[in-house]
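Protocol step 4 of 5: obtain the predicted structure for the target chain.
Materials: sequence only (see below). No template structures provided, no constraints applied. The aim of this step is simply to have a reference model before the mutagenesis design in step 5. Sequence pasted as it appears in the construct record:
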Amino acid sequence: MSTTRPYPPGDLGPEPGVAGVAAAVPAGQIRRLRLAGTRGAVARARDFAREALQDWGWLPAATADQRAAAEDVLLVVSELVTNACLHAEGPEELRLRCAAKVLRLEVSDLGAGSPSPRSPHRPGRPGGHGMFIVQRLCLDWGVVRNADGAGKTVWAELAAPS
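Step 4 output (structure tokens):
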């Protein structure tokens, strides 16, 4: 997992209204998309995330940095949902949570395995790059097992655009 977080896991930064925090970011908003049993889950998840980013003012992007931040979110959504499709009996739900400084993505599934970047990473080979991409683009990521033992939630956090 990444170790580049400026604050501990689960701490999404200061709440809006605190000095120095941009008020334009819609902190605390959560969007959910049920994906269980649906066809075209990756495309649906990307479209859903794109709509949320538009509603939250990330898109259309005013600067190259803002455009890159939005593209990173869409790529990480694609990678997490694709992994659930390929390795975990399909995704159950996608959740997006927007905080003042961080966007948290969560994909829940019923699979037993835990994702990890392929080691060693071999850039020239097809496949096996998803979690490496997630690790490189995100502030942090991880896996939380469901309390009943059936399935997990894979989460990733990306910095909000400045």
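Step 4 remarks: The first strand starts at residue 29 and ends at 34. Confidence is low (pLDDT under 50) at residues 1-9, 12-23.
Proceed to step 5.
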